[in-house]
Amino acid sequence: MTIDYMQQALDLAKQGQGRTSPNPAVGAVVVQNGAVIGRGFHTWSGLDHAEIVALREAGERARGGTLYVTLEPCSHHGRTGPCADAIIRADIKRVVAALEDPNPQVGGQGFAKLREAGIEVILDQTHHETAYRLNEGFVHFMKTGRPLVTIKAALTLDGKIAAPQDNYGWITSEVARAEVQQVRHLSDAILTGLGTVLQDDCLLTDRSGRERSRPLLRIVLDSQLRIPLTTKMVTSVKNDLLIVGTSAAPAERRKALEAAGVQVLIADGPGGRTDPNQVLQYLAKERYLSLMVEAGSKVNWAMLDTQIADKVLFYYAPKILGGLHSLPVAGGKGRLRRADAILMERLTLHQVSKDEFAVEAYVTKS
What we know:
alpha/beta, 9-stranded mixed sheet, 5-stranded mixed sheet, 28% helix
């Protein structure tokens, strides 16, 4: 039986997810004579990288061995020293990596340093897609300079997210909602609109129970800063709530929110509305790699129509609401011609429970 050492490294990397941002989640194993003698994965920013942890466990036995790592070893000085130098000192003879560093200023330099030292370097194409998906937000951020934006929604089979009257209860099952918590855990920030807060009095917290490198940043688009100070979001604030308003909002509302520990960002957009692009600029400056949108029909459409959204993750329940007044997942003006529809690509179906599924797809950018 062939042992998949890279899969072991990927499984290790998953243990660091949510605990590494703004760094990537990385796993590594050291193999000598067919046996794994060192394992490691990266956690908090500033701590040793996965390769260093694995090499330390392997010790002198690493000499002449093979290192399997999910991401190209770094070659530059940051908060920690270059992993490529440590690999060379350990006298590793071969490095197998699943993904090149996506940073255009760094990518390939780690491999080059290893090759210059006489170490064989192999790029594992078989596990490339898995390694990419493992750090999708990090890769996107490095390539575009802004966070990956995902619209998440729970829908009926006819694409509705809310009924016109009583909206108590859930569209999807407990199984689906538990999976969403795991997805939230992998996000750095989550955004909604004031309407959703007023309707649901939601918390929008990470309830996965897993460790995070920093709190999930909760963001509310609220042009007039009307969010009540008594909402669960405000009363639960722990340096994790950003309200986005406009300069037209009353100054006393801003003072009251800031006194309650809420951070306020003024982002004027057209028509007196907030500008989501300025939110992305703020997140990029603070190195938030990923943003999940869990909002209402209008916000979802605004994100899609302006191509701010990069992907969608829709959870479908075996229900039909029907009617002309139930809210669709994306409202607003919409596209008036089928020829102008927003196109999606790289669509994947995920079975969630016996009668539920999720659709994951990427927005085709014009």
